[in-house]
Specification:
- By secondary structure, the protein is mainly beta.
């Protein structure tokens, strides 16, 4: 199959809400490189995430990735 490498930019914000720490992030991602089926791919999009514990987050990634026809 293969793997991909992406570059991320954006903002991470931590606030206090009802005595609890709330960390969120949003920004843009860009396809940088790939191997196997993803080699020579391209693409970009946005992401939005929320930390749900000290070690886990939930988020969504939107955008488009184009793979060359083989």
């Amino acid at each position: 199959m293969g793997s991909t490498t992406s570059e991320y930019s954006g903002e991470i914000t931590t606030t206090m809400k009802e005595g609890q720490q709330l960390t969120t992030g949003k920004g843009a991602w860009k396809f940088v490189s790939g191997t196997g089926a993803y080699s020579d791919g391209s693409g970009n999009g946005t992401y939005d995430l929320t930390m749900i514990s000290q070690t886990e987050f939930r988020g969504s990634w939107k955008g488009n990735v184009t793979l060359p026809k083989k």
